[in-house]
Design a protein that fits this description.
Elements (H helix, E strand, L loop, with lengths): L1 E6 L8 H12 L3 E6 L5 H12 L4 E6 L1 H11 L11 E6 L5 H5 L6 H14 L2 E11 L11 E3 L2 E4 L1 H14 L6 H14 L8 E4 L6 E4 L1 E5 L5 E3 L2 E3 L11 E6 L4 H12 L12 E7 L1 E14 L2 E21 L1
Parallel strand pairs: 1-2, 1-3, 3-4
Antiparallel strand pairs: 5-6, 5-16, 7-10, 7-15, 8-9, 8-15, 10-13, 11-12, 13-14, 15-16
Helix pairs in contact: 1-5, 2-3, 6-7
């Protein structure tokens, strides 16, 4: 099998020596081409070329969730066609690795490589659903390009936290749970919409859901991890269904404490709940509008400010070796 290994050299949890070991292990079973990314968007470009050349059967992403997201967007540049496109495999190398862990892969890169080789020997794969987000026609964001996401998107408060974390990392700070907690507090103190939300969710055939402060769109559960603790914003979310949404319409100090506790103690059976929480399951088409430009993120990548985003849940979008 001819495969392309896309390596992010800045992946936070793999060393050059570890990457060499992984490359040798994969090359023993695959006709392997190895390319190291050199710029933002390079993994997307490499995966698109692999999808278009007709020779590559598998693309392996070695990196974090950002690298995986770029590879997925490259593979799906012309849209989903699982049987006609190269398969995707993931070797986790980031700080969180939500997508890989949601697939059931070990969080250790060497162990995950062993699991990948076993899956290749057993011809084990699955087809997963993904989310697609685009600018809404007729709005100022109409020209925003469509982009796929693997596990989550956020519009509003949580995206603001992601943006703050990115700024800190660009200044040389390490991505730690303490860093995220500090930015949650700072975003809470700054967010002028936290008492009366500016976000409205619209979907065909239903009344709009208004005045949301938080809107987290989930493609799988768990939504993220705190160390080894899985966090379930939308416990029913699955790679086998469309998209789930957790919306919160209030973020007073007491509400933050309550929902933070519910997230920390969430499980596959129960996520955040209460008077100001809205949970929606298996949505194929919906739009999030805002009265004012708000932060927007996908798979932990801050994409700037938007006033409107249209989401589509696409079942059976991509083959994954697992």
């Amino acid at each position: 099998m001819r495969a392309l290994l896309v390596v992010n050299p800045a992946a936070t949890t793999t060393s050059a020596r570890t990457r060499d070991v992984l490359i040798h292990a994969l090359a023993s079973d695959l006709k392997l081409d190895v390319v190291t990314t050199e710029y933002r968007g390079h993994a997307r470009d490499l995966a698109r070329q692999a999808a278009e050349n007709g020779e590559t059967e598998l693309v392996v992403a070695l990196g974090g969730d950002g690298t995986v997201n770029e590879v997925v967007n490259g593979l799906l540049h012309h849209g989903p066609a699982p049987e006609a496109l190269p398969g995707l495999a993931v070797v986790p190398g980031g700080s969180t690795n939500v997508f890989a862990r949601a697939l059931g892969l070990p969080n250790d890169a060497i162990e995950a490589t062993g699991a990948l080789l076993d899956a290749l020997h057993d011809h084990s794969e699955r087809t997963v659903g993904l989310g697609l987000a685009a600018g809404t026609p007729g709005t100022e964001d109409e020209g925003a390009p469509a982009r796929w996401f693997t596990f989550c998107a956020g519009f509003g408060f949580d995206a603001g936290v992601v943006g703050r974390v990115e700024q800190q990392r660009e200044q040389g700070k390490r991505s730690t749970h303490a860093l995220y907690i500090r930015q949650v507090v700072r975003q809470f103190l700054k967010d002028q919409h936290r008492r009366q939300g500016a976000i409205t969710l619209e979907r065909p055939g239903h009344d709009p859901v208004e005045q949301l402060v938080v809107s987290i769109v989930c493609n799988t559960a768990p939504w993220t991890y705190l160390g080894n603790r899985p966090v379930y914003a939308a416990p029913e979310a699955s790679f086998d269904t469309a998209l789930d949404v957790l919306g919160l319409s209030r973020l007073s100090p007491s509400a933050v404490a309550r929902y933070a506790t519910q997230l920390l103690t969430s499980s596959p059976e129960r996520g955040p709940h209460g008077k100001h929480a809205v949970s929606l399951h298996d949505l194929t088409d919906f739009t999030l509008h805002s009265q004012a430009p708000l932060p927007f993120q996908m798979d932990g990548d801050h994409l700037g400010l938007r006033t409107s985003v249209t989401f589509t849940g696409v079942r059976r979008a991509l083959r994954v070796i697992v």
